[in-house]
C-alpha cells in the first residue's frame, strides 16, 4: 500500500481526515468480540439456476422505485426478482423481448422507465406496463444511439441519463412530462479498453468518468449545451492500461476500483492512497483487480474483486477476506465478484459463476464452541448434556463420553476432567450441582455420582454407584439438586428418586418405596422459593414439600401425572426441564406438549400451555433459561425460542441464525452471571451473547406480482391487464372466469424468516383475514358471484410488525341475463302495464306531499325564528347577570378591605364587635357571589383546569387556617393527616380551593359543638399500572346524611331538609356547593363519593389522577454582587445608599374609592401615582418615572388589556412590571394577560397583605432572574416573553456585547450608538431587565469569558494571564487581575496554576 501526498513536506495534519474516518467506524467495530468477524454476522443464501435464475453470470444488480430487484446477466438477459420468483426479459421472450441477452447494466430515470444497456444497444422498459418502449418513439437521435453497443449508463442527481456508447458520452435530459428535452454528447479517443466507470459521485449533476487510464469530471455548459471535460485532481494519476470499474463516496473520501488495485482519494486533503495485493501481507487486499464497491448500513466498505470480498477495517487499515474457499461459515460460492448492492438488511452479491449470493444480517450474537481434534483446549466432546456455574463464575460443562469441562471467565479454553485421568467414575456427565462449601456433585450416565473438589480435581472425594456397594440403582443420573434445608442431595435417576443424607452419609428413600422405584427418566429438577422440590420424569412431575418430613423419613408430596393444563384429558405428561424465573414463576418444559407457565391466583394453581400454535418452534423442550432482560429462552429439538413476556410472543431461531444445529441436548441450559445464555447442543456449546443492533425496518407494503385467470397467467400489456399487476389498482373479470389467483410479495426479501407471514381477505366474500403461512403467498378464489370485491393483503414481519394494506379492486361482470339493465327492462315492461292504472293515484299523492312539505317548511322556519329569539334573550340575560355579578366584587372589596384594615387599627371592643358583624356578612355576600359565578361558569362549560406544580401540603395548611379558628370557637377538633410521597404535585389551586372550602365548611356546619372533623391527604398507586392518584377525604362525626338523600347529595340546588346545622359565617348555603365540587372533580378526570360512617357522621372521598411529570425543584444559589456604576468602578456602601430610592407605583383604576383604598395600602412603602383609565395612564408614563404598574382590567376609554398591550409594545416602558386587578374570573382573560406579558393576576376582592406580597414577589423574582442571568448568561433565565420588544432588545444588547467585548476602547456611548438609544434609557432598561448597567454588563461578560479561558488553558498552557486579559478586551493586565479577584474571589494566576 502506497501513500501519495500532494506536497513534499507532509505534515501530520495531512492525516487528520484519515483519523476521523477511522473514528467514524470505531464505535461499530468495537461492538464485536474478538471471535467475531464480518462473516460471523451474516447468513448467506445462494440464488442460482437451481432456484430459477436464468443464468449464473450476474453483471449488475439494481433496485427500482417499486422495490423490485433487477438482475443483469451476461448471456441470461434481464430478470425482475420479487424475493420468490423471476420475471425474465430476453431475446426469446415474445412479451418481454430484448435486443441482446448479454446485458451489462440498467438504470431507472425519474419517469419510471428502466434503461437497459447490452452489447446490442439500449432497451427501455416501462415499469408501469413491463413493456419495452421503442427509442424511436422518444427521439430519432436516441434511436440511433440505441442501435450502438453501449458499455455503461447512470442517472445523475438532476435526473439526466448519461450513456457511454462507443467512444462517446451522451447526456439525455428530459422535460417535466418525461419527453426528451435535449441530447448532448462529448467524443473521446477510441481505445481497445472496454471497462468504463460513470457515476454522479458528488450528487450535483456532474459525472465522474473513469476511462482510458484517466479520471475526469464531465459537466454541462448551460450556455453552449456542450459537455465539458475537466481534470479532477492532478494527483489522481494511474498506470497505463488502467481499467476503472466503480467509484463510491464514503464521507469526504472517494474510493476508486480499478484493475490495478484500490485507490482512496481524500478530496479535502488531496491525498491519494493506494491498496495493492501483497503475498507477504495477509491482510492486504485479496486481488489487484477490483470489480465493485459498496458501503453497508454500518458504514463499512465492501470491496469486490476477482478473489472474493474484502471488508475494510479502518482501525487497522487492513482487509478481512471472504472467499469461497473458507472451510467454516462459507458465505460465497464463487470468488469472481461482479457487482454489489446494499439494500435494507441485505447485501446482494453478483458473481460470475455462482449467481446471486445474498447476505442477511444475523439477529443474534452467537458463539459456538465445538470439539476440534487439532485443538487440545477445545471442548472435549460435542454433545453437551449439563451446564453449571459456580460462585467464582467458572462454567462447568458435562459432555456425552467426553467427561467434565472447565471454562474460566473471559476464556474459550477448556480444562478436561475424565475417567481416564481419575477425576470421574464415567465420561458421560449428565447433571452437575454444588454443596454450600463449593464442592461439586457430578452425576453421570452409567457410573453413578461423585463428590468433586475443584481445588483437588484429580480424584473424587466420594463415589456413589452400584459398583461401589450402593444398594439402589444410581448409575444413571438424570437430575440433581442440593437441599440446604435438609442438608442433602436429591438424585433423580433413570429408575427412581433418592435422597443422600449428608449428615448420615447414606442414601435414603424420600418417598414411599412403591413410589420411589416406579419413577422413570427423571430429568429436570428445581427447588422453588417456597421450598418445594419440583422434579420431572417420564410420568409427569413430583412436587415435594421440603419443610414437611414425616417420622419415617419420607416427605409429603403430590404427583401431577396428566397433562398439566388439562388433567382430565388423561394424557400422560413428560416433564424434561424446570426453571424458576426471577419473579418466582415456574416454567416446565415438556417432551411433546410444549412448555407450561405456572401461575397462582387466589391460592389456586394454574398452568398455561404454550405450543407451536402459540409460536413456539417445537413442542419438544430440552432446556429453559431467563436472561437479565426478563426474556425466557427455550432450547428444543428444532432450534431456539425466545419468549418476550411484555409482548406475549415468541421469536424463533434456527441454524440460519448461526446455531450449529437445530437439535439441542437434554437438561443443559444456563444464564451466566455475565448475562450470557449457555445451551447444550449436539454439536457443542452454544453461547448467546445478545442481540445485534441491526436495522429495524418497518414492514414494507405488499406488491402484487402475478395474476392468473383460469390457471393461465395474464401478462401485462394485455386487454385484461394493461399495466403491470404491481401498479394496478383495479381489474375486471367475468363470471365465466371460473377461478382467478393473485400472488404477492412484501419485497423485504426475508424469505427465510420463520415468523413472518401474509394475510389476505376478499372484502365482499371473506369475513375474516386468512393467514398464508409456510411461504404461501397466493390468494385463490373460484366461482365468485357477479359484483364488486376488494382483495386486501398485508404482511407481518418477523418482529410482529404489521405493514400497510394493499388493495386490489375486482369487478366480476355477470352474464347478460343477470345484468341490471336486463332486469330493469323486464321491470319497465311490467311497470308500463300497471302505470296507467296507478297514474291518477300517484298525481294525488304527489300533490298532498307538496302541500305537507310546504306546511312543514313554514312551521320549521317559525320554530327556528322563535329559537333564535329565545337564545338571544337568554344570552342577554346571562351577560347582564355576569356583568352585574362582576361589578359586585369591587364594592365588596371596598367593604372587606377597609374593615380588615380597621380591625387591625381599632382597639375599642364594641367597635371591633360591630366590625366583625360587618366582616362576616360581607364575606357571606362574597361567598354567594363566588358560588353564583362558579355555577355560571360550570353551566356554560367555561371552567378550565390549569395545573401548576406547587407544594400541595403547604397550600392545604394555609387554606385550613380560617377553618381552624372557627372550629376552635365551637370546640370542634379539626385534624389534618398527610401521607404524600412528595408534597409538590401538579394541581389547579383555584379548583382545589373551591372543593376543599365547600367540603370543610359543610363538615363544620353539620358537626355539633365538641365534635371532630378530619382531613386526609395521600398519594396512592394503582395496582394495574404505575400511575398515581391523589386521595382526599373529609370526615366528620356529625349528624350524617339520610340514606335516602345519598344518591341526590350532588344534585343541583339540592339541600338536605330536616337536618340540624350550625352557622358558618362567610360561607353561603345555596344548594350548589356539592354540585360544583362534583363538576370540578369530574373536569379533572376524578371521582367523588359520599358515604355515612359506621358510628356517626359522613365522609366525602375524592380520587384525582396525578400528572406523572416531575416538578422542577432545582434551586440556584443566589450570589449578591456589589453594584457597579457606568465607569466600571465598584460602588461603596455609601454610594449604594445614595442610589437607593423609594419605588413609584402607578395605580390605574376607574373607581376613585378603589384607587384611594389601594393608595392607603401602598403609600407607607411606595410613591403612588394615579390614573383613571388606560389613556390617562399612558400620559403619566410619558411624563413620570414609574417602577411598577397596578391596573384594573375593566375600565372606560381604554381597559387594562389594551393598556398592557400598549405598554409592552413601547420600548421605553415595556420593562415595567405589571400587576392586573380585576373582578373578572374567566380563564380566557388570564391567559390573554399572561400572553401579552402581564407579570401577575390578582382577583377582587383581595387582601391588602396579599397585594403587598404579590408586589414584593414580582420584584424579588426579577432580582432572582437578574442573579441567575449573571451566573449563566443565558437570556432564557430572564424569563422574558418570547417575541416581546424586551426580548428583542436584550437579544440585540447581547449581540453588541459579543461583537465588541474584545475592543478595549468600546465605551457606553458606543453601546448607545450601536443600539440607537439614549444613555439614560439604556441604563434604565438594562437595570430593570438584567439588573446591570451597560458598563457593568460589558465588564462582567469579559470577566466570565476570561474565567472560561483560564479553565480551558489549565491543561494546554497556550495562553498566559496577560494574553487572556488582552483577548477579552482589558488593556491593563493588573487592572484585569484586580477585577477578576474581586469577581471570583481568587486570583487568575492561582486559578490558572
Key terms for this structure?
1393 residues, alpha+beta, disordered N terminus
How would you portray this structure in words?
It is a single chain. With 1393 residues, the protein is an alpha+beta fold. Helix content is 25%, strand content 32%. It is built from 23 helices and 78 strands. The strands form 19 sheets. The protein has a 5-stranded antiparallel beta sheet with strand order 1-22-21-20-19, with no helix packed on it. The chain has a 5-stranded mixed beta sheet with strand order 60-66-65-62-63, with no helix packed on it. A 5-stranded mixed beta sheet has the order 68-70-71-73-72, with helices on one face. It is globular. The protein starts with a strand and ends with a helix. Residues 1-35 and 1113-1140 have low confidence and may be disordered.
| Mean pLDDT over the residues | 83
**Helix/sheet category:** alpha+beta
Question: Termini distance?
Answer: 47 Å
| Count of helical stretches | 23
Question: Can you give me a brief rundown of this structure?
Answer:
With 1393 residues, the protein is α+β, with helices and mostly antiparallel strands. The chain has 23 helices and 78 strands. A 5-stranded antiparallel beta sheet has the order 1-22-21-20-19, with no helix packed on it. A 5-stranded mixed beta sheet has the order 60-66-65-62-63, with no helix packed on it.
How are the elements arranged and paired?
Blueprint: E1 2-4, H1 16-29, E2 42-47, E3 58-63, E4 69-73, E5 77-81, E6 86-89, E7 103-108, E8 113-118, E9 121-126, E10 131-133, H2 135-138, H3 140-146, E11 150-155, E12 161-165, E13 168-174, E14 180-187, E15 197-199, E16 207-211, E17 214-221, E18 226-231, E19 244-250, E20 253-258, E21 261-266, E22 271-275, E23 290-295, E24 301-305, E25 308-313, E26 318-322, E27 337-343, E28 346-351, E29 356-361, E30 364-369, E31 384-389, E32 395-399, E33 404-407, E34 414-417, E35 429-434, E36 440-444, E37 449-452, E38 462-464, E39 477-483, E40 488-493, E41 496-501, E42 506-508, H4 513-516, E43 525-527, E44 532-537, E45 540-549, E46 555-560, E47 575-580, E48 586-590, E49 595-601, E50 604-610, E51 621-626, E52 632-636, E53 639-644, E54 649-653, E55 664-671, E56 677-681, E57 684-691, E58 703-709, E59 712-713, E60 730-734, E61 739-745, E62 757-763, E63 770-772, E64 778-782, E65 787-796, E66 806-813, H5 820-905, H6 909-939, E67 948-951, H7 952-959, H8 961-969, E68 973-979, E69 984-987, H9 989-1005, E70 1012-1021, E71 1028-1036, ...
Parallel strand pairs: 60-66, 68-70, 74-75, 74-76, 76-77, 77-78
Antiparallel strand pairs: 1-22, 2-29, 3-4, 4-5, 5-6, 7-8, 8-9, 9-10, 11-12, 12-13, 13-14, 15-16, 16-17, 17-18, 19-20, 20-21, 21-22, 23-24, 24-25, 25-26, 27-28, 28-29, 30-57, 31-32, 32-33, 33-34, 35-36, 36-37, 37-38, 39-40, 40-41, 41-42, 43-44, 44-45, 45-46, 47-48, 48-49, 49-50, 51-52, 52-53, ...
Helix pairs in contact: 5-6, 6-10, 9-10, 13-14, 20-22
Amino acid at each position: 500500500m502506497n501513500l501519495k501526498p500532494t506536497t513534499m513536506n507532509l505534515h501530520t495534519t495531512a492525516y487528520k481526515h484519515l483519523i476521523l474516518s477511522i473514528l467514524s467506524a470505531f464505535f461499530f467495530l468495537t461492538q464485536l468480540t474478538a471471535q467475531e468477524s464480518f462473516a460471523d454476522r451474516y447468513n448467506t443464501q445462494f440464488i442460482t439456476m437451481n432456484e430459477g435464475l436464468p443464468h449464473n453470470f450476474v453483471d449488475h444488480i439494481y433496485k427500482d422505485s417499486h422495490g423490485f430487484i433487477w438482475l443483469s446477466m451476461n448471456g441470461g438477459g434481464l430478470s425482475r426478482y420479487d424475493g420468490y420468483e423471476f420475471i425474465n426479459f430476453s431475446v426469446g421472450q415474445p412479451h418481454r423481448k430484448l435486443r441482446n441477452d448479454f446485458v451489462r447494466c440498467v438504470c431507472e430515470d425519474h419517469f419510471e422507465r428502466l434503461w437497459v444497456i447490452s452489447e446490442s444497444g439500449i432497451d427501455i422498459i416501462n415499469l408501469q406496463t413491463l413493456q419495452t418502449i421503442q427509442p424511436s418513439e422518444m427521439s430519432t437521435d436516441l434511436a440511433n444511439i440505441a442501435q450502438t453497443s453501449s458499455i455503461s449508463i447512470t442517472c445523475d442527481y438532476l435526473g439526466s441519463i448519461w450513456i457511454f456508447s462507443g467512444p462517446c458520452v451522451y447526456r439525455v435530459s428530459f422535460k417535466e412530462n418525461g419527453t426528451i428535452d435535449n441530447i448532448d454528447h462529448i467524443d473521446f479517443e477510441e481505445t481497445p479498453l472496454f471497462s468504463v466507470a460513470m457515476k454522479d459521485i458528488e450528487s450535483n449533476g456532474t459525472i465522474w468518468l473513469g476511462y482510458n487510464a484517466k479520471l475526469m469530471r464531465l459537466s454541462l455548459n448551460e450556455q453552449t449545451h456542450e459537455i465539458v471535460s475537466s481534470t479532477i485532481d492532478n494527483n489522481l494519476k494511474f498506470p497505463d492500461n488502467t481499467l476503472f470499474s466503480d467509484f463510491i463516496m464514503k464521507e469526504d473520501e472517494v474510493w476508486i476500483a480499478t484493475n490495478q488495485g484500490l485507490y482512496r482519494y481524500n478530496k479535502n486533503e488531496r491525498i491519494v492512497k493506494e491498496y495493492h495485493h501483497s503475498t507477504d501481507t495477509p491482510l492486504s487486499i485479496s486481488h489487484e483487480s477490483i470489480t465493485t464497491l459498496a458501503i453497508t448500513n454500518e458504514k463499512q466498505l465492501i470491496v469486490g474483486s476477482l478473489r472474493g470480498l474484502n471488508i475494510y477495517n479502518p482501525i487497522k487499515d487492513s482487509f478481512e477476506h471472504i472467499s469461497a474457499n473458507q472451510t467454516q461459515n462459507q458465505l460465497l460460492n464463487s470468488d469472481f465478484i461482479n457487482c454489489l448492492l446494499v439494500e435494507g438488511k441485505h447485501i446482494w452479491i453478483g458473481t460470475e459463476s455462482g449467481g446471486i449470493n445474498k447476505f442477511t444480517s444475523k439477529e443474534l450474537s452467537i458463539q459456538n464452541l465445538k470439539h476440534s481434534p487439532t485443538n487440545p483446549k477445545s471442548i472435549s466432546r460435542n454433545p453437551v448434556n449439563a451446564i453449571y456455574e459456580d460462585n467464582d463464575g467458572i462454567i462447568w460443562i458435562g459432555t456425552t463420553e467426553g467427561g467434565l469441562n472447565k471454562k474460566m471467565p473471559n476464556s474459550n479454553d477448556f480444562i478436561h476432567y475424565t475417567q481416564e485421568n481419575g477425576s470421574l467414575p464415567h465420561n458421560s456427565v449428565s447433571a452437575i450441582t454444588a454443596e454450600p462449601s463449593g464442592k461439586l456433585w457430578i452425576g453421570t450416565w452409567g457410573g453413578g455420582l461423585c463428590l468433586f473438589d475443584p481445588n483437588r480435581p484429580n480424584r473424587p472425594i466420594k463415589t456413589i454407584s452400584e459398583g461401589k456397594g450402593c444398594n439402589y440403582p444410581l448409575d444413571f443420573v438424570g437430575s440433581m439438586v442440593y437441599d440446604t434445608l435438609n442438608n442433602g442431595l436429591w438424585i433423580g435417576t433413570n429408575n427412581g428418586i433418592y435422597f443422600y443424607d449428608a449428615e448420615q452419609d447414606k442414601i435414603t428413600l424420600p418417598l414411599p418405596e412403591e413410589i420411589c422405584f416406579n419413577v422413570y427418566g427423571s430429568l429436570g429438577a428445581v427447588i422453588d422459593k417456597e421450598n418445594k422440590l419440583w422434579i420431572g420424569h417420564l410420568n409427569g412431575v413430583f412436587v415435594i414439600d421440603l419443610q414437611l418430613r414425616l417420622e419415617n423419613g419420607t416427605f409429603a408430596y403430590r404427583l401431577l401425572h396428566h397433562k398439566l393444563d388439562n388433567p382430565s384429558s388423561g394424557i400422560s405428561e413428560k416433564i424434561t426441564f424446570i426453571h424458576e424465573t426471577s419473579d418466582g414463576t415456574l416454567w416446565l418444559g415438556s417432551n411433546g406438549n410444549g412448555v407450561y407457565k405456572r401461575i397462582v391466583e387466589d391460592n389456586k394453581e394454574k398452568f398455561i400451555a404454550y405450543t407451536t400454535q402459540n409460536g413456539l418452534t417445537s413442542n419438544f423442550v430440552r432446556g429453559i433459561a431467563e436472561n437479565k432482560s426478563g426474556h425466557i429462552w427455550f432450547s428444543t429439538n428444532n432450534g431456539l425460542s425466545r419468549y418476550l413476556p411484555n409482548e406475549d410472543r415468541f421469536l424463533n431461531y434456527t441454524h440460519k441464525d448461526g446455531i450449529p444445529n437445530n437439535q439441542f441436548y437434554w437438561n443443559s441450559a444456563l444464564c451466566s452471571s455475565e448475562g450470557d445464555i449457555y445451551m447444550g447442543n449436539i454439536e457443542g456449546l452454544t453461547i448467546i451473547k445478545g442481540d445485534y443492533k441491526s436495522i429495524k425496518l418497518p414492514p414494507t407494503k405488499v406488491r402484487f406480482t402475478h395474476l392468473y385467470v383460469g390457471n393461465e397467467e395474464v401478462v401485462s400489456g394485455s386487454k385484461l391487464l394493461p399495466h403491470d399487476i404491481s401498479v394496478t389498482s383495479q381489474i375486471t373479470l367475468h363470471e365465466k372466469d371460473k377461478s382467478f389467483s393473485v400472488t404477492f410479495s412484501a419485497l423485504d426479501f426475508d424469505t427465510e424468516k420463520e415468523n413472518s407471514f401474509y394475510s389476505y381477505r376478499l372484502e365482499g366474500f371473506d369475513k375474516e383475514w386468512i393467514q398464508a403461512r409456510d411461504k404461501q403467498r397466493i390468494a385463490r378464489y373460484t366461482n365468485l358471484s357477479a359484483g364488486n370485491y376488494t382483495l386486501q393483503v398485508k404482511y407481518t414481519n418477523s418482529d410482529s410488525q404489521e405493514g400497510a394494506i394493499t388493495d386490489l379492486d375486482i369487478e366480476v361482470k355477470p352474464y347478460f341475463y343477470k345484468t341490471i339493465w336486463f332486469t330493469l327492462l323486464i321491470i319497465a315492461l311490467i311497470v308500463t302495464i300497471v302505470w296507467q292504472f296507478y297514474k291518477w293515484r300517484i298525481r294525488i299523492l304527489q300533490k298532498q306531499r307538496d302541500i305537507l312539505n310546504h306546511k312543514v317548511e313554514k312551521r320549521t322556519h317559525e320554530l327556528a325564528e322563535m329559537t333564535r329569539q329565545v337564545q338571544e334573550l337568554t344570552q342577554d340575560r346571562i351577560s347582564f347577570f355576569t356583568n352585574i355579578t362582576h361589578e359586585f366584587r369591587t364594592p365588596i372589596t371596598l367593604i372587606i378591605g377597609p374593615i380588615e384594615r380597621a380591625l387591625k387599627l381599632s382597639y375599642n371592643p364594641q367597635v371591633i364587635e360591630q366590625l366583625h358583624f360587618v366582616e362576616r356578612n360581607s364575606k357571606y355576600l362574597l361567598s354567594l357571589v363566588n358560588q353564583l359565578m362558579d355555577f355560571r361558569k360550570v353551566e356554560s362549560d367555561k371552567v378550565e383546569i390549569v395545573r401548576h406544580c406547587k407544594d400541595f401540603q403547604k397550600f392545604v395548611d394555609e387554606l385550613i387556617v380560617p377553618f381552624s379558628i372557627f372550629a376552635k370557637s365551637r370546640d370542634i377538633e379539626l385534624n389534618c393527616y398527610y401521607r404524600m410521597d412528595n408534597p409538590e404535585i401538579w394541581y389547579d389551586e383555584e379548583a382545589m380551593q373551591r372543593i376543599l372550602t365547600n367540603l370543610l365548611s359543610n363538615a363544620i356546619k353539620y358537626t355539633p359543638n365538641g365534635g371532630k372533623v378530619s382531613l386526609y391527604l395521600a398519594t396512592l398507586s394503582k395496582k394495574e399500572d404505575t400511575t398515581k392518584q391523589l386521595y382526599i377525604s373529609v370526615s366528620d362525626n356529625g349528624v350524617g346524611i339520610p340514606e335516602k338523600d345519598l344518591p341526590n347529595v350532588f344534585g343541583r340546588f339540592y339541600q338536605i331538609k330536616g337536618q340540624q346545622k350550625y352557622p358558618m359565617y362567610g360561607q353561603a348555603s345555596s344548594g350548589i356547593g356539592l354540585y360544583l365540587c362534583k363538576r370540578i372533580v369530574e373536569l379533572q378526570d376524578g371521582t367523588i363519593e359520599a358515604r355515612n360512617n359506621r358510628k356517626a357522621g359522613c365522609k366525602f372521598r375524592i380520587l384525582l389522577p396525578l400528572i406523572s411529570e416531575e416538578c422542577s425543584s432545582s434551586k440556584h444559589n443566589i450570589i449578591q454582587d456589589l453594584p457597579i456604576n457606568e465607569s466600571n468602578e465598584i460602588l461603596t456602601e455609601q454610594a449604594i445608599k445614595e442610589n437607593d430610592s423609594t419605588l413609584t407605583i402607578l395605580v390605574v383604576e376607574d373607581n376613585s374609592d378603589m384607587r384611594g383604598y389601594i393608595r392607603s395600602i401602598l403609600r407607607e412603602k411606595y410613591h403612588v401615582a394615579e390614573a383613571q383609565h388606560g389613556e390617562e395612564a399612558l400620559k403619566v408614563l410619558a411624563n413620570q418615572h414609574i417602577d411598577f404598574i397596578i391596573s384594573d382590567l375593566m375600565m372606560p376609554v381604554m381597559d387594562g388589556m389594551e393598556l398592557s398591550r400598549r405598554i409592552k409594545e413601547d420600548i421605553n416602558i415595556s420593562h415595567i412590571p405589571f400587576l392586573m386587578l380585576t373582578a373578572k374570573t374567566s380563564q380566557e382573560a388570564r391567559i390573554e394577560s399572561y400572553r401579552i406579558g402581564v407579570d401577575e393576576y390578582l382577583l377582587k376582592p383581595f387582601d391588602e397583605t396579599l397585594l403587598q406580597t404579590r408586589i414584593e414577589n414580582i420584584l424579588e423574582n426579577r432580582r432572582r432572574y437578574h442573579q441567575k442571568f449573571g451566573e449563566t448568561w443565558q437570556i432564557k433565565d430572564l424569563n422574558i416573553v418570547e417575541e416581546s420588544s424586551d426580548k428583542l432588545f436584550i437579544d440585540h444588547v447581547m449581540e453588541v456585547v459579543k461583537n465588541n467585548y474584545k475592543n478595549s476602547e468600546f465605551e457606553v456611548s458606543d453601546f448607545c450608538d450601536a443600539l440607537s438609544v439614549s444613555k439614560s434609557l439604556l441604563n434604565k432598561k438594562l437595570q430593570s431587565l438584567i439588573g446591570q448597567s451597560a458598563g457593568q454588563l460589558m465588564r462582567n461578560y469579559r470577566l466570565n469569558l476570561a474565567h472560561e479561558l483560564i479553565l480551558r488553558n489549565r491543561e494546554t498552557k497556550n495562553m498566559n494571564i496577560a494574553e487572556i486579559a488582552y483577548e477579552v478586551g482589558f488593556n491593563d493586565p493588573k487592572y484585569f487581575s484586580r477585577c477578576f479577584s474581586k469577581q471570583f474571589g481568587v486570583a487568575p494566576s492561582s486559578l490558572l496554576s
